[in-house]
Amino acid sequence: MQYNFFVDNIHFCIYIKASNMTSSRLETHRQTILHFLNEGVCNAQEIHKLTNIPLSTIKYNIKKLKENGNEKKRRLHQPQRGFSGQFIRRNPTQSLRNLAVKLSKYDVNISYVTIKRHLNELGYKNQLPIGTPMLTEAHKAKRVEWAKKHINDSWEKTLFSDETAFQLFRNTIKHWYKCQRPTKRFPKNRQKVFAWGGFSVRGKTSLFCFTQIMDAKFYVEILEKHLQEINRMLENNWRLQQDNDPKYTSHRAKEFLREMSQK
Description:
The protein is α+β, with helices and mostly antiparallel strands. Helix content is 44%, strand content 17%. The protein folds into three domains: 2-68, no CATH class; 78-126; 151-262, Nucleotidyltransferase, domain 5. The chain has helices at residues 22-38, 44-51, 55-68, 78-90, 96-104, 112-121, 137-149, 216-234, 251-262, and strands spanning 2-7, 12-17, 124-126, 158-167, 176-178, 192-200, 203-204, 208-210, 239-241. Strands 4, 6, 7, 8 and 9 form a five-stranded mixed sheet that branches. Strands 1-2 form a two-stranded antiparallel sheet. Strand 6 (192-200) and strand 7 form a beta hairpin. The longest helix has 19 residues, at 216-234. The radius of gyration is 33 Å and the shape is elongated. The relative contact order is 0.07. Residues 1-21 have low confidence and may be disordered.
């Protein structure tokens, strides 16, 4: 009996030639072809190059295996299952492709499709964030209208302003989980910090941080605190560009800006 070894970077198989055992040789061919199919090598030409099995034999066996339903799906073995479970528990937000790359460092060469099937069999789910609609057609039309209206404006004396919020322990990242949906512990009083600022082609204002909820009255107080700074930067002749937030477009805020423009 003669043994021929065929090795590449990923796969290896032992192809046994038994000159006086025709049925055993055919079964060896079938098992060798099945091995490569389970490893994800489904191209007859590629299997022929790796094993030197006649191409017609390979095509015949692939056809029979598919017809008989004997082409098994590749599965993760127990050590590989352990690795994948550890990675998911340590970082439940990682992608399947990233997980496949990590497993390859442990000599586990397997596709992300197999990993997904394995995780689904274990009951893991991967939830997507709740989607929010983008700009409506009405929003887009108003923006185009505004842009055409101000197409010839000079922006050298315009201050663009806005506010944003920062909060620790935010719950915005999806997680892999099975059975019960995971929980995330938060401190009793999560501190939320707001920041307001403005910028122009001549520079930017200092950043104003606060913790209280901004309303129209407080917004006017912020503008008052930054008037001297803005006047120095834009030489007492400037305009304020802001969005349509209700506190920005309130009667109190408009009245304040109107008084400032008359001085």
